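Hi W., the serine complex you wanted:
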Amino acid sequence: MISQELRDKFLTFFKERNHKIIPSSSLLPTDPSVLLTTAGMQQFSLYLSGKKDPLEDFGSRHLASCQKCFRTGDIEEIGDDTHHTFFEMLGNWSIGQDEIGYFKEGAIQLAMDFLVGELGLDKKRFYVTVFRGENGIAKDEEAIDIWLKHGISREKIIECSAKDNFWGPVSSIGPCGPCSEIHYDRGEHLGCGRPDCGPNCDYCKRVVEIWNLVFMQYNRNEDGVYELLNQTNIDTGIGFERLLSVLNETGSAYETDIFEGMIKRIEEVSGKKYENNKQAFRIIADHTRSAIFLVGDGIEPSNIGQGYILRRIIRRCVRYSKMLGMTNDFSLGDYVFEKYSSVYNELNGSKERIYGIIRNEEEKFEKTIKTGLAILEKKLETIDSNIISGEDAFDLYQSYGFPVELTEEIASEKGFKIDKVSFLEALKKHQDLSRAGAEKKFGGVGKDAGEEGAKLHTATHLLHAALRQVIGSHVQQMGSDINVERLRFDFSHTQKLSSDEIKKIEELVNQKIKENLEIKKEEMGLEDAQSAGALAFFKEKYPETVKVWTIYNPTSGECFSKEICAGPHVNKTSELGIFKIIKEESSSAGVRRIKAVLIK
Ligand code: SER
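Structure:
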């Protein structure tokens, strides 16, 4: 079965069962607390939490979609059989229960009808997982009974902890609930042979998850407490690529029509065989596809937020292409456009623009590599031993952005080794220094400016979030400065703001001040902060542990802004007074500058 057929089958199946088909939303979410779209339910979160009525906006409580998603948490796993950065998620929803709404029974029935009835999968190869009960929430006996009624034998119904079977929320607050996953046994030949092998096996991918059914009954509030929602919802998600590969009995999606063309082309261009270089081939194919989709949704390479993810993806792709001895080969991207232009309209007619942006970033990276290479080669000529010191490797990394893995590869081709221990020491020393520097720099501003500084800091976060809501999520902070009198904020945007836009921004900030939102601080690792959706506030390097500030409504739990920043901030927005923009001007090409004050 080819990808288009599966997509059509799913959407038609749910359409025939009274579901409204909703187009995929962008990879750039409207919710400022989340960096990228990671699940189909994200565009429906206000409906799932009961704040909006789906009947009013969609004319139906039953929805289905094929959603573009992006998960960065799995980036190191790319190359294996089951993970992708960009992927599609098929999902169906029943929001709120009334005479037509469905819950566990209906969701399981629909899942079985689609997988077994429509697609012809053998239910003897299913395992299902259910929530075993934890944190005061009971074991899901109801789901166990329903699965038994559908002929799944008791030993194939596996009880799992909250880690595997309690889904959500997407950021730290919002709708969530216990879930039940359908896993599929792909066959003994892919297994580890252990007697306890099954879903979530640590040793092999014989059994893979194909569909997650979430029984949304809770809302996780600011204090981490799970409150019962006033309504129940069904939220489901199928990993599209996984299901496609299961249906075709291929080891992975790379052997399906989605990637086949690219894999063949890489073989032609590199002269190497996929079978012998699976990981590199898969990384190149996966990253080519995801870079195109990210740029397609308006993201450009940069050092922060979504732009940084894109930069990392493109550079990683170049690096693996080089490892296979390939030069940039744009015809690879053509396969992506061929497959998806008829599915996702934003790819139509934008090929040149997308290629231009990607090519530009590749060229930048090429230059980096070239400079680094010349220096490395010179270095190699001058050293007597066959060991490159950690300081030299670090210098290449620090001054020229030359990845240490690349230094290692080139060095080993020429019979050299890197002193990895001293490289790591140099890296750590640098990180300690930059942490101290960052604390001084970012911590100092507000402290020196005292109480007023804290207020202006909070106002800056409100302004940043308001800009992204009013003029678009392409807005990224390019600089910020606070003194006792005013804040100054530089951001990426090409046009002068109209007086109407300025008015809207002021109004939104003042409304948030009036709503008396609360500000909370959490400390966490940089990676965790970014996956929690925190916007990076400064362009400089971050320390390993960062402070994340969230401005949220304590009653509804809704988050207005989440950013990494050293602070300090006030506790409540009502402390700020009235926010007023006093100037809007150009700062440099593509960057605008706002100066604003707080009036008591
Ligand atoms: N939200 C759930 C998930 O992402 C089901 O779609 O797995």
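The domain at 3-253 is CATH 3.30.930.10 (BirA Bifunctional Protein; domain 2).

W.
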